[in-house]
């Protein structure tokens, strides 16, 4: 909802600011109106940013490898991390006792954060 309000206000401002000057509507659409619209955009932009940050935090905090993988892929693209290395949910470290699957159900990859 906040994202729709944010984008709607951005579109209106992009249209109103040039038309205000072109049609000499400065006495009808004052700087106070534009300032109030900018304040609404600031508030809704902060709400959208908070929503995205909470989504990333919850995927990290949940500890679910699939949720975490989805967020990493959303942030960095189809490769796992900025290094471009591909990882799998299996590892060959001694802590996994040779089973191939990590006991903590987390990726064993240096490009993901260690736990």
Give the SSE map.
Elements: H1 2-22, H2 31-62, H3 65-76
Describe the structure.
By secondary structure, the protein is mainly alpha-helical. It is 57% helix and 0% strand. It is built from three helices and no strands. Helix 1 runs antiparallel to helix 2. The chain starts with a helix and ends in a 39-residue tail after the last helix. The C terminus is likely disordered.
Quick overview:
The protein is an all-alpha fold. Helices cover 57% and strands 0% of the residues. The longest helix is centred in the middle third of the chain and has 32 residues, at 31-62.
Q: How large is the share of residues in beta strands?
A: under 5%
Helix content estimate: 55-70%
General shape: elongated
Flag low-confidence runs. Answer: 103-108, 110-115
Order of helix and strand elements from N to C terminus: HHH
The oligomerization state is single chain
Helical element count?
3
What structural category do the secondary elements indicate? mainly alpha
Number of strands: 0
Q: Mind telling me the C-alpha Rg?
A: 23 Å
Major sheet summary line? none
Distance between the termini: 35 Å
Q: How confident is the prediction overall: mean pLDDT? A: 80
